[in-house]
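User: Some background: our group keeps a shared notebook of sequences we're curious about, and every so often someone picks one and asks for a predicted structure to add to the entry. Today it's my turn. The entry only has the sequence so far, pasted here. Could you supply the structure so I can complete it?
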Amino acid sequence: MAFLKRKKTKKEETADVRRKRRESKTVSTNTSFLDTSKTISAFIFFLIWGFIVLICFVGLSPAGPQILPDRVAKFRVVAEFPFDYESILRTKRLVEQRRQSVAPFYQIQMEPYQDFSAKIVALENLIETQLTPELDEIPEAEWPDVVDRFNRREIADIGLKVNTEDLLLIMQRTTPEQRTRLFDEASLVLRDIMREGVFDIDETPFADQSGSGYRPVQVMGLNGGRRAQSEENAVSDLRINFAGLGVDNTLARAIYSIYRNGLTANLEYDSTRTEAEKQSAGDSVQPVIVEIMEGETIIEPGAVITQDQIEAYTAYRNAVAEDEDYGWGIDSTLAERAVLSLGLLIGALIYIQVGLPSMHRSNRRLALAALVVVFNLALVRLVLQLGETRLVGAEPGIMAMIPFAVPVAVGGLIMSIMVGAPAGVLIAVIISAINGLMQANSIDVFIVSLLANLVGIYFGRDIRLRAKVVKAATMSGLSIAVAAMCAGFFTETDAITVSRQVIAAGMVGVLTGIVVIGVLPLLENLFKFTTDITLLELTDYNHPLLRKLQMDAPGTYHHSLMVANLAERAANEIGANPLLCRATCLYHDIGKMVKPEYFVENQHDGYNPHKDINPTMSALIIKNHVKEGVQMAKDAKLPTVCIDIIKQHHGTTLIKFFYHKAKEQAAQPSLPLSASGQTAGLRESSNIDESSFRYDGPRPRFKESAIIFFADAIEAASRSLKKVTPQSVNELIDSIISQRLEDGQLDEAPLTVQEIAKIRDSFAFTVTNMLHSRVEYPKMDDEKDKKAERPRGDTPTPIDVKEKKNGTNSPTKQRAV
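Assistant: Of course. Here's the predicted structure to add to the notebook entry:
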């Protein structure tokens, strides 16, 4: 037991703290460098590329060339010498692109502004001649009714829409001179924006240009400066300019509300000028000359021949006819496939940077993806290599099974379970593309492989049982079986061969599931990942730690269950991981098993040991349950993420009860600090070190830890409610959340204000229902009669017996956490 050891001196404690802090910083720095270093990322990238080339392409036999015009190509056509030709098709497309790139021409129309400006002038005249004199004669309390009546009658007649509240605000906040200046400046702002041109993005000429990368419009008469802008941008510009009028925000919003009605699209489309410019752009296009290099692919296998391919193929045939020394090209070389695989990996890297930022920032995830890809492709090459052996290669029936017996879904399913479906899809594309390159650059193979991966990922969503891994993999195999049947139908393959292919696909699906189940634990331990499968296993109440918690600290165990219910529902509300919250909540207070009697939920006999020690020692014991819990979790080999949450579930919050108790006792040196009469450690309340009464942290750093951080405090505090009502529960939750936000406990947590609001509502619902009251059951008439006949005071209650036996009344329990 840590607290039975010799108490260290202040100097020794300080040295230990500094040493641990240095070690923690060193480990954290090294881990951060390894996980975020761009050098390591580049090394992983080139390493996986090298392994792909080595495993997949070195020594792989290529297929011979063949072409069938106007049908699906089964092999590729490669240019064996360089040539060029004029492409009519590409020239036509380029002409059309140039025409479409010409932005439409527009003329600025200022009539809408002039009409609105006239209405503003009329509004000013009505205000100064009618409204202002009337308001001067009545008390301000009657202004709203007068302004509302004036707005509905007078202002409506001039066709101007003005909000009554805005007009009332302007009348209350400004003098006549200020109103005149304000309206003049606002009109100038609107005029400047309208002079630049405002267009409606929903109109067809503008909508056609969206996303094209060209200028949206060309405005006639607009010289330099800013270009025309959409109505949405103009509205934003108007709001920003009004904010700089030198008035308060409320008044600026009122003026904006009036002038917003005058901001409309004022560009008139000039079709004649636009068409002339398009014609000129099309005429300037030069014929497109296509250059085909030696070794360049003309026809891709497995694809329906396109018009461009027919054009290139025809030009190639003409070039061959001119020089009979050239003939058919050869199939893809190792260098060609290596370059293609490099391009594929570059594309994958770009997608990771754009679509998977969490993976891009973590070398650990990149290394996992690299290892999974290499492992899966090694299995693919192993199966394909069997087709080149004498035993298999001599049997056409077995050879026909090989393409459908490739375990292509291993990598996608593993990544989907460990990292997420988007990462799984990316790995599926990489593996499927490489598999297609390995099998004669077949697009059919690529599509079937990708389909199998996607089916496995789809059925592998939210997997929490290992049996479902086999189910997902089996469904993946069945999709390959369906593809085999379809291919057999269209190619008129015999039924026996198709049956073999279907059986092979189904068996590979089952074997894929078995392989994934076997590999997952190894990858979890190697890369420190935690899957939902592992988390679900941790929720088993027969886990040794939970069994021990039930026996040694039953109150803490029940508290953990309640916190788990709170956190799980809140996590569902904000899209966090509810299973991670539930599993970790069950273990977050396991450190209390070291000294369970020092925590109020475990004090069943009315005795509170904190009465016999000073507040500083009490706070130290309370704080220590976090450290003890972390150590116990490490000894039990709990996942790293669970250990992190145990560290963070109190953040650096203040143990207020003992902190205030220490201050009160320190302010009264004549009184003992404890029930045993201790007086050591007396000091002025101003000298109490607050850091000694704060948890060591760290603060919550991700959503799940922040949810548990709040759930733990709210569940504990809810037990102190004297009367449970929705109002009292809401007030309690709001108080705890606001205090901890003000204390900066969520400064490192990625929670938005909206998510905190959802968490708060979820807690309120759960706590209110968790602490519900029961309807009192009516008693039987005979029991009432017996009770009436029994003399009062003859039978003591169990509490009276206990108090008489102890000789004292039950002391009031104090909550220590």
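Suggested note for the entry: The chain has three domains: 37-60+333-528, 105-265, 535-770. The chain has a mean pLDDT of 80.
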